[in-house]
Amino acid sequence: MEKKITTLLNIGDNIEIEVDKGNSFLNMKSNVVKVISDRMIAVSTPIHNGKIYPISIGSNINIVFSKDSKGIFYFIGEVMERKKEDNIRFLIVKKNSDIRHFQRRDFYRLNILLNIDIHVIENGEYVKTIPSISKDVSGGGIRIITKEKLEKHTTVKCSMILDGELIEPIGEIIRCNPVPESILKYDIGISFTAIDESTRSKIISFVFKNQRKIIKKGLI
């Protein structure tokens, strides 16, 4: 059954407008101004670097949004009009593709190197911070390498910067394996155990955006 805009989006919902820049995607925040029909939607004109970002009539853009625990949705849209009413600038976008749905289990673990601070928690208190480097990240957990061993079932807070924003999910060590002949001696898997849906959606969106870049380059 075809997914419909009218059943998935409401006025005020946060979305991302994704513009293909050739070698990369430009993602900008927007929101739903009006749901016109199953194939037509009005969205606020995105702001980039403090200025209104000009999107020409006839341009194809991707509309990306998340729905709580259901995962990420996106569709290809065409800008039909640029309008201004009551000092609000917005775009009229026509849906030109099916709405595609990525559930959490559909997301692969994104191989990416990030600086991660691991804050060890014991009896509800932070006892030390261990610097680490990520090997991969997903909406459900993260894999890191570090100099220090961490015991299985240890509770940690993972501090990382994704798209310029600090993200700090709580997780549990599920494995810690030695890495022979390496400065970073331990390969550690962490499963997120205390994470709100907003934070998880931000991680999934980060993975999704970078996955799209890799697909565009033909690497997967």
Automatic annotation (TrEMBL):
Top-level lineage group: Bacteria
Type III secretion system flagellar brake protein YcgR PilZN domain span: 10-94
Pfam families xref list: PilZ, PilZNR
InterPro entries per record: PilZ_domain (IPR009875), T3SS_YcgR_PilZN (IPR009926)
N-terminal signal peptide: none
UniProt KW Cell inner membrane keyword: no
Keywords linked to the UniProt accession: Cell projection, Cilium, Flagellum
Record-level Gene Ontology MF annotations: cyclic-di-GMP binding
SUPFAM superfamilies documented for this protein: PilZ domain-like
Domain PilZ: 103-208
Protein name according to UniProt: C-di-GMP-binding flagellar brake protein YcgR, contains PilZNR and PilZ domains
